[in-house]
Write a structure and sequence with these properties.
By secondary structure, this protein is of the alpha+beta class. The protein contains 7 helices and 3 strands. Helix 5 runs parallel beside helix 7 (170-184).
C-alpha cells in the first residue's frame, strides 16, 4: 500500500461536479457553493484540493485576474479561474438534495483558448511518459504494469477530453496519437 494521502478524495470529486455545472469559477466562489451544497469544508482544505487537482490534471487554471475592491486584507484580490481538466473524477452518486442545489447554479461563460490548454496537457503527459520510460527498466514487474496501465488510461482520458473540447482538430489528434508511439518506445 502506498504511503501518504490517497490520490482520490471526495472533496476533489465534488469540486469537479461544481465546475461541471458552472464551467468556470474562482476558488472562493467554489468554496461558497461547496459549503452550500455539500456542507462544511475549511477554506484551506478547499484550496489545497484545488492545487492538488491542478497538479493531477483534474482542473486547469484558465485565467488569473486581479480584482479591485475593499477587502479586509487590502484593496486588491487575485482570482484564479478553474475549469475541468482531462483527468477529472466525478462521484458515483449524489444525494437528491445536492442534485437540486447544483441544478440551480448558473453556468459561467468564458472565452478559453482550448487549443492552448490542450497543448499544455499534451506536453505535460509527454514529459510524464518520458520520465516513466526512463525508470521503467528499474521497476518491478507489477509496478511496471501498473504504471503502463495508468499512462494508457491517461492517454484515453485526454483523447476523450480533446473530442469534447475541440472536436475535429486533426493536428491535436495527431499529437495525441504520437503519445501512444512515445509510450511504446523504449529509451535506454
Amino acid at each position: 500500500m502506498p504511503r501518504g494521502r490517497p490520490v482520490k478524495t471526495d472533496i476533489r470529486e465534488r469540486i469537479a461536479v461544481i465546475l461541471q455545472h458552472l464551467n468556470i469559477s474562482y476558488g472562493y466562489q467554489i468554496y461558497k457553493i461547496y459549503r452550500n451544497v455539500f456542507g462544511y469544508i475549511s477554506l484551506r482544505n478547499l484550496y489545497y484540493n484545488l492545487k492538488k487537482g491542478v497538479e493531477l490534471g483534474e482542473y486547469i487554471v484558465v485565467d488569473v485576474k486581479r480584482e479591485k475592491g475593499m477587502f479586509t486584507w487590502g484593496e486588491e484580490a487575485e482570482h484564479k479561474y478553474y475549469t475541468l481538466g482531462p483527468y477529472a473524477i466525478f462521484p458515483k452518486q449524489l444525494k437528491e438534495k445536492e442534485k437540486k442545489k447544483l441544478e440551480e447554479l448558473k453556468e459561467e461563460k468564458a472565452d478559453i483558448n482550448w487549443e492552448e490548454e490542450i497543448k499544455k496537457q499534451i506536453i505535460r503527459l509527454e514529459e510524464e511518459i518520458k520520465k516513466f520510460n526512463n525508470i521503467k527498466v528499474r521497476l518491478k514487474y507489477e509496478e511496471k504494469i501498473k504504471g503502463e496501465h495508468a499512462l494508457k488510461k491517461k492517454i484515453e482520458l485526454l483523447k476523450d477530453w480533446l473530442k469534447e473540447k475541440v472536436g475535429k482538430n486533426q493536428i491535436l489528434k495527431a499529437k495525441i496519437n504520437k503519445l501512444h508511439d512515445l509510450f511504446n518506445t523504449h529509451t535506454p
